[in-house]
Amino acid sequence: MYRLIDGKAIADQVKAEIAEEVKQMVAAGKKRPHLAVIIVGHDGGSETYVAHKVKSCEQVGFTSTRLAFEDTITEEELLAEIDKLNADPDVDGFIVQLPLPKHISEQKVIEAIDYRKDVDGFHPINVGRMSIGLPCYVSATPAGIMELLKRYEIPTAGKRCVVIGRSNIVGKPVASLMMQKACPGDATVTVCHSRTKDLKEICLQADIIIAALGRPEFLTADMVKPGAVIVDVGTTRVPDATKKSGFRLCGDVKFDEVAPLCSFITPVPGGVGPMTIVSLLKNTLLAAKGEIY
Ligand code: NAP
């Protein structure tokens, strides 16, 4: 019988731990951790994500600031706003919600953020530090996946781990973390992508599969070794007339047929997703404590 990895429950647990730490910081006369979020334009998805981030800050006792700009803001003006936050001693960490309008270079924006305040962990200094195992801000989704493996005490040392997907925000960093000399980590990692040959055979050798490709129900039972651990990162919106919203979130794993084969599996929704914001909160706490310098 497989065990469901309950991301919602773990996220609530981590939030409670953070809230307790904030309480103690405040009781000791320290200031509350402060996260600022920049949002540009009126993209519905981005507005929802930012609202969740602000609400989560409130839940754990952080101060939060939402800075909203119209999508007519120029790149230069946005970079000037980033400089202000870099210099503001009251702001411990900040993020710029992506995507940005086409006339603004996301890479320039990411690199303009002081890496010591880059709680999204996208700055090349943080990415580089992560890859050589130095203290850094790890980006939210990979950090959330590692936290789930840790909290469920899933053995990773010496295991064969297959990561499907090589994006900069999920596939590459999670592969890097899984191969670190650390716990969780110490796995033998194979990264697959759209040009990979014999993907099914590679997956069949895996003790752990992390599916992050954004193709609904891609991973089927014939690709999974009995007893494997499955982490499903995919969240694709598929039309569903039975839902009020008109869609449902679909993972990259054909859950019903894969789950009975597994030892552990994350559901979608309720698996990796809820951990993402928690990772951002954890990074902000690290920033407030001055642990990344
Ligand atoms: P992405 O940037 O689109 O990258 C997808 C990766 O999958 C690429 O490396 C691509 O290969 C590979 N790929 C695509 N089709 C493939 C196939 N048929 N076989 C093998 N590899 C294939 O996506 P992403 O940003 O990493 O996100 C992946 C999924 O995770 C999406 O569903 C996204 O919504 C979800 N996500 C969820 C969370 C969360 O909090 N739960 C957070 C982030 C992302 P190439 O490099 O060769 O193109």
Helix/strand layout:
Layout lengths: L2 E2 L2 H21 L6 E7 L3 H17 L2 E7 L5 H13 L5 E4 L9 H7 L11 H8 L8 H12 L8 E5 L6 H9 L8 E5 L6 H6 L3 E4 L17 E4 L3 E4 L7 E4 L4 H4 L5 E2 L7 H16 L5
Parallel strand pairs: 1-11, 2-3, 2-4, 5-6, 5-7, 7-8, 8-11
Antiparallel strand pairs: 9-10
Helix pairs in contact: 1-10, 2-10, 6-7, 6-10
Bound molecules: NADP nicotinamide-adenine-dinucleotide phosphate.
The site of NADP nicotinamide-adenine-dinucleotide phosphate has 25 residues, from helix 10.
What's this, in brief?
The chain is α/β, with parallel strands linked by helices. The protein has 10 helices and 11 strands.
Shape: globular
- Uncertain parts: none
* Fraction of residues in helix: 25-40%
- The succession of helices and strands, N to C, reads EHEHEHEHHHEHEHEEEEHEH
Helix count equals 10
- Tell me the strand order in the biggest sheet: 1-11-8-7-5-6
What's the rounded overall pLDDT mean? 97
Ligand set? NADP nicotinamide-adenine-dinucleotide phosphate
Beta-strand percent range: 15-25%
How many beta strands in the DSSP annotation?
Answer: 11
Structural summary, described in words:
This protein has 293 residues and is of the alpha/beta class. 39% of the residues lie in helices and 16% in strands. It is built from ten helices and eleven strands. The protein has helices at 7-27, 44-60, 75-87, 106-112, 124-131, 140-151, 171-179, 199-204, 255-258, 273-288; strands spanning 3-4, 34-40, 63-69, 93-96, 160-164, 188-192, 208-211, 229-232, 236-239, 247-250, 264-265. The strands form three sheets. A six-stranded parallel beta sheet has the order 1-11-8-7-5-6. Helix 2 links the parallel strand 2 and strand 3. The chain is globular. The model has no long low-confidence stretch (mean pLDDT 97). Bound molecules: NADP nicotinamide-adenine-dinucleotide phosphate. The site of NADP nicotinamide-adenine-dinucleotide phosphate (NAP) has 25 residues, from helix 10.
